[in-house]
Write a structure and sequence with these properties.
single chain, alpha/beta, Rossmann fold, Arc Repressor Mutant, subunit A, 3 domains, binds adenosine-5'-triphosphate, binds magnesium ion
Length: 400
């Protein structure tokens, strides 16, 4: 009996992880010595890669990786989450440092300095700064540190989060200063689901990591599909399995998202009579698969009132240069609605789109779509700005 949950399928990207570590050390073709900023669409395997590939590779190199997910708890301030991760790591090394301190008779200045700082109040007045805390952690564990901040753009949504990002930059500069052979004591890795969002960390002088580049995180590729086909086809009689080409085509249609592919395969088995059914569906109605991948978004989008649709369209089309009240944006709303939108209606629409997690806001009025994949899908299915017909006729938009 087909049961894809029996044994979890995992696919490792060790070579990619190694190349990123080289880049962080400044030894790769890609130079990420001032920080690695990885952008990739939602649900395409960023966190899995950090956890299962990149962190193990860092440990192999003798680094101490720390992982923070700024979306893990949206109720908590991003700065608090970063500080909590550092504090946890400090606690992990407390045992070894106390032993080490006893061994050297508490004489070593660096150790004394570590002991005297107040780490219960990191980042607060009177407490240690984030840079001090990371320096102390580095001294305690005696290894280069790597801080991995998943969904880093989320930090930009609060002033404390922005301050924490600046503090990380300061820490990076403080820890890496005066190192021999350009060795680094602190490596920074940040991920985000949208290139435009991450850009807000690096674009302007006033932004924390001004000057660093954004790297597009590679989507899972044919190697993943080949490994998946091997795993999958062990569960079928010879000749009844899925072909790599067919799986690859389906994977592309669902935006290179593993979960979606698993759903498609599961449905092919239960509803289409197996692998042959999927091949047939792809040959006859590939678009149906693609639409299913975006089904949830499509129904949310269809339910939006006209003003929100117009603002959404403008963000999608004008990003990264979109500014809500610029002449280009005002013209775009008008083109779609047939009449101008008032300032308060624009603001109201943006707030509603943020609540629905379709649009993301960095402080100071910069907006972007939540996800690169979402933008690509929307523009592909709406190559022209749709013109909304008056409500009395129809509000429904043709999709596809
Ligand atoms: N290398 C892999 N091998 C097998 N499955 C994977 C792999 N990478 C990701 N997946 C699966 O894809 C799904 C999404 O992965 P993950 O949560 O890492 O993506 P993400 O890009 O971080 O998503 P989000 O945008 O929600 O943060 C998970 O179900 C995960 O198990
Ligand atoms: Mg993730």
């Amino acid at each position: 009996m087909f049961d894809p949950t029996k044994e979890p399928f995992t696919y490792r990207r060790d070579a990619l992880a190694a190349s990123y570590c080289d880049a962080l050390e400044g030894r790769g073709i890609l130079d990420a010595s001032s920080g690695l900023f990885l952008a990739g669409p939602r649900r395409t395997g960023k966190s899995t890669f950090l956890r299962d590939d990149l962190m193990p590779q860092m440990r192999l190199r003798g680094w101490e990786p720390l992982y923070v997910d700024l979306w893990a708890d949206r109720a908590r301030d991003p700065a608090e989450l970063i500080i909590a991760a550092i504090r946890q790591a400090l606690a992990r090394f407390d045992g070894p440092v106390l032993k080490a301190a006893k061994r050297v008779g508490l004489e070593k200045l660096t150790v004394l300095k570590v002991v005297s700082l107040d780490f219960s109040k990191i980042g607060q007045p009177g407490g240690a700064t984030i840079a001090d805390a990371l320096q102390a952690l580095h001294t305690k564990c005696g290894k280069p540190l790597a801080l991995l901040v998943d969904e880093a753009q989320h930090a930009l949504s609060s002033p404390a989060g922005v301050a924490a990002m600046f503090a990380l930059k300061a820490a990076r500069d403080q820890l890496n200063q005066g190192q021999r052979n350009h060795e680094r004591s602190l490596h920074l890795v940040m991920t985000g689901s949208n290139r435009d969002k991450l850009t807000h960390l690096v674009l302007r002088k006033s932004q924390p990591f001004f000057g660093a580049g954004i790297t597009r995180f590679p989507l899972l590729d044919r190697g993943f599909i080949e490994a998946y086909a091997l795993w999958l086809n062990r569960q079928f009689a010879p000749g009844c399995g899925f072909e790599v080409d067919v799986l690859m085509q389906a994977f592309e249609l669902v935006g290179h998202r593993p979960e979606m592919l698993k759903t498609v395969v599961g449905e092919a088995v239960t509803e289409l009579g197996g692998a042959a059914g999927l091949s047939q569906q792809l040959a006859q109605n590939a678009q149906q698969l693609q639409r299913r991948a975006w089904h949830e978004f499509e129904s949310t989008y269809n339910g939006l009132p006209p003003a929100q649709k117009a603002v959404f369209d403008a963000v999608a089309r004008l990003s990264p240069g979109y500014e809500p009240f610029a002449a280009t944006a005002l013209a775009a709303y008008q083109a779609m609605l047939g009449k101008p939108l008032s300032t308060s209606a624009i603001q109201g629409a943006l707030d509603a789109l943020r609540d629905k997690e379709l649009v993301w806001r960095a402080g100071r009025g910069h907006y972007a779509l939540e996800d690169d994949g979402l933008q690509a899908w929307y523009l592909q299915s709406h190559p022209q700005t749709p013109v909304l017909t008056p409500p009395s006729v129809s509000l429904a938009l043709p999709i596809g």
